[in-house]
Amino acid sequence: MAKQFDVVVIGAGPGGYIAAIRAAQLGLSVACIDAWATADGKPAPGGTCTNVGCIPSKALLQSSEHFEQANHHFAEHGIEVKSVGLKLDTLLGRKNTVVKQNNEGILYLFKKNKVTFFHGIGSFVGKADDGWSIKVAGKAEEALLARHVIVATGSSPRQLPGLSFDEDKILSNDGALRIPAVPKKLGVIGAGVIGLELGSVWRRLGAEVTVLEAMPDFLAVADQQVAKEAQKVLTKQGLAIHTGVKIGEVKTTAKSVTVPYTDAAGAEQKLVVDRLIVSIGRVPNADGLGADAVGLKRDERGFIAVDDDCKTNLPNVWAVGDVVRGPMLAHKAEEEGVAVAERIAGQHGHVNFATIPSVIYTSPEIAWVGKNEQQLKAEGRAYKAGSFPFMANGRARALGDTTGFVKVLADAKSDEVLGVHIIGPMASELISEAVTIMEFRGAAEDIARICHAHPTLSEAMKEAALAVDKRTLNL
Questions:
Q1: Would you put residue 127 in left (φ > 0), alpha (ψ -120 to 50) or beta?
Q2: What is residue 321's DSSP assignment?
Q3: Catalytic residue positions?
C-alpha cells in the first residue's frame, strides 16, 4: 500500500531539501526523494551544490588561496617559509570531508524536522484520487501518494556538441574538482562562474591555464566597469583569457587535448592542453520524471513550465530551482523552495528576482545585485553613480588586499538604489547589505547615513553611497 504524504519533494538539492524542511515546519507530512550517492552507495543529499558545485569548489578555492598566499604573500607579513609543498591528495581529501559533512548535515535536518527520506529516483506514475502517485526506484521500490508534489531535480552541465564528458580529459565541473594531479596545461571553455573559479583553483596550484570564451565581451552579465577590472586582474594573476572565439572540432589522445579555434580577429589558432574543462552552461534535469505520462508541460528549452508562483500546468504540482526559468543559483532555488512550501500551507511565499545577488568566488571576489550601468542606459533610465576603491579603505590595506571597488547606482530623482556592483575582498559578504537595502526599496542616502563599524570593508559600501551625492569622506 502506498505511503501517504501531504508533500513529496523530488530532489534534495538546495531547492528540494529546503522546501521539504519548510513544509515540515509548517505542520505538513513530508517526504523527500533523492538518488545522489557516495562512492560506497550511501545517500548524499545536497544535489550539485553540495556534491560537485558550490561547496566543494569553495573548499578548493580556500585551499588553493592558502597555497597562493604561502608562496607569494607571506613574506609581506614577515613570515618566512623556506619551502612550500603541495599534497594534492590531502587537499582533495579535505574537500571530500567538507562535502560529507554537508551531506550528513542535511540527513540530520531531515530527521530533526521529521522529513521522511527515500534514497532513489522519484517519478510520476499517474493521477490518484487524493493527489499523485509517485514511484521511488531504489534498492527497494516504494510507492508514495502525494497531495502536493514539488519537483526540484536541478540541472546538469551542458556538453559541447559531439564532445562528451569522460571526466578524464574532457571535464565537467565534477571532474574538474577531482583532477588527480596538477596538469601542466589546462584549458577552460567558458569564462563564466565555473570556468573562472575552477580555472583559478588550478592556476594557483601550478597549472598554466587558458580560458576560451565565445562571447565578444568578458563577463558580459556583469557591470562593464567591474568586468574590465576583473579581466585585468585575473590576466595579471596568470589566466590567459581569450574572448570572441569560435571553437572547432576538439580532438583527444591518451596524452593531450587539442582545441582548434578562430580568435576574435578571425585568425586560426590551436590550443593543446593536458585536460579541458567545459563550462558552457547547464541544462535542466527533467528527463526520467515520467513527465510525459502525466502531461507535465516543459518549455522549448526543456525547463518545466511554471507561473510566477512556481505552479506547473498540473494541479498541486510545483517546480523550483534549476529545473525552471530564472537564474541557476542555489540561493534562488532555496527561496523558491521556501515560497512554495508556504503557498502550499496557505501562506504567501515571496521571491523577488530583482534582488537575487550573483557572486563569483575568484580573488578578488565579484558580486552584484540589481541593474548594471549598461542595462540602465539601454532602458533610458536616469541614474547617479558613486564608487569607492578598496585602495582607500583602511581594513583592505591592513588585509593587504586593496584590489577593486564598490559601485552604487541610484535613481537620479528618488535616490532609490537600482544596483550595487563590487569587485574586491569579501564581496560575497558585502553584497548582502545592498540586497537588504534594495529589498526595502531604500536609497543611497540610507546606506550613507547608516553607521558602519571602523575599520571594516563595509565602509567602502558607505563611501560609495556617499559618492552618489559626491561627498565621500575618505577619497
A1: beta
A2: G
A3: 454
Q: Is 238 left (phi over 0), alpha (psi -120 to 50) or beta?
A: left
Write out the binding residues for NAD(+).
Answer: 190-197, 213, 281
pLDDT by residue (tens digit) across 169-181? 999 999 999 999 9
Q: Residue 99 corresponds to which cell in the numbers above? A: 562535502
| Alpha carbons within 13 A on the beta-carbon side of 219 | 28
Contact yes or no for 96/103 (Cβ under 8 A):
no
pLDDT for 100-114, tens place per residue?
999 999 999 999 999
446 φ/ψ sector (left φ>0, alpha ψ -120 to 50, else beta):
alpha
Cα–Cα distance between 219 and 226 in angstroms, integer?
9
Residue type (1 letter), 114: K
Q: Give the chain's mean pLDDT.
A: 97
C-alpha dihedral, 145 to 148 to 152 to 153, nearest 10°: 30
Residue the block writes with cell 535613481: 411
| Section 378-407 average pLDDT | 98
CA-based angle 244:245:248, to the nearest 5? 160
- CA dist 428 and 205 (Å) reads 23
Domains, the chain, ordered by start:
3-157+283-351 (3.50.50.60), 170-280 (3.50.50.60), 355-468 (3.30.390.30)
Grid coordinates representing 284?
535542466
Binding residues for FAD: 58, 122, 153-155, 322, 328-331
Bridge partners of 433, per DSSP, are none
* pLDDT score of 140: 85
> Could you give phi then psi for residue 124, rounded to 5 degrees?
-75, 140
Q: Bridge partners of 260? A: 270
